[in-house]
Write a structure and sequence with these properties.
69% helix; two-stranded antiparallel ribbon; 2 strands; 4% strand; mainly alpha; 238 residues
């Protein structure tokens, strides 16, 4: 997204782009693999991770298709969407911390947690495990190995995990909406750059001999009901 790199280091820009696509695919595969267990693996969390993977992969694919057809303006738009969607995971952490603080201060919130998970947390402190979570050792103290862990900060790691985990599903959906709106607002506020790149696309597609110069990629005038795009010179002549 740095203009200097596009103008003076185009090879680096291209190689960097391919690396980003590769890493994005690998990270999405990994995220989908652990979604069932991440922060409790609640349904809203699994669905949110899946939606985020679809959005980032789909946007990256559309960006790649457009640049293959030299549709630079649409490549920019879809790569911006990819970056904004991928950045959701950063905002999620901020919202998680805020929600955990609120949940902890309000009190009275609990998360269902498996005793096996708590045992892993207390792997080096079995005495502490027995002291803080005696229900895991009592006869009929659990429901199929599950107990309610209070969501509160400043206690054991299990309690902190519960406080963070309760807000994860909400945080990722809220962050996704914020980033989705944010990128569309940014694109709407930078029409000059989009128009400039559309004309650059027209010139390069014309030189390459494409049938629809200016609209060889995935553009609204070819796929939708938008007016056929023409360079400013042709519009003024008409």
């Amino acid at each position: 997204f740095i203009p200097w790199l596009r103008y003076h280091a185009i090879t680096f820009h291209r190689v960097n782009g391919y690396i980003i696509l590769l890493l994005l695919l690998i990270s999405n595969i990994g995220a989908l693999m652990i979604a069932r267990h991440s922060f409790g693996g609640e349904i809203e969390t699994q669905v949110a991770v899946g939606v985020l993977a679809i959005l980032t992969t789909g946007s990256a694919a559309l960006a790649y298709i457009n640049i293959r057809y030299l549709q630079i303006d649409q490549h920019r738009a879809w790569m911006l969407r990819t970056a904004f969607y991928a950045g959701t995971i950063i905002t999620v952490r901020v919202i998680m911390i805020i929600s955990a603080l609120i949940i902890s201060n309000l009190g009275g919130f609990y998360q269902a947690t498996k005793c096996d998970k708590i045992a892993y947390i207390f792997a080096d402190d079995e005495a502490g495990f027995r002291e803080k979570f005696p229900a895991c050792f009592a006869v009929n103290g659990t429901s199929d190995g599950w107990i309610a862990v209070e969501a509160i900060l400043g206690n054991s790691a299990a309690n902190v995990g519960a406080a963070l985990g309760l807000g994860f599903g909400t945080a990722i959906w809220l962050a996704l909406v914020m980033h989705g709106i944010g990128v569309e607002v940014y694109l709407a506020l930078t029409p000059r750059e989009g128009n400039r790149l559309r004309y650059v696309s027209y010139q390069r597609q014309l030189q390459a001999g494409y049938r629809y110069p200016g609209s060889a990629g995935l553009t609204a005038d070819r796929l939708g009901d938008a007016d056929v795009w023409k360079p400013a010179s042709q519009c003024s002549d008409g």
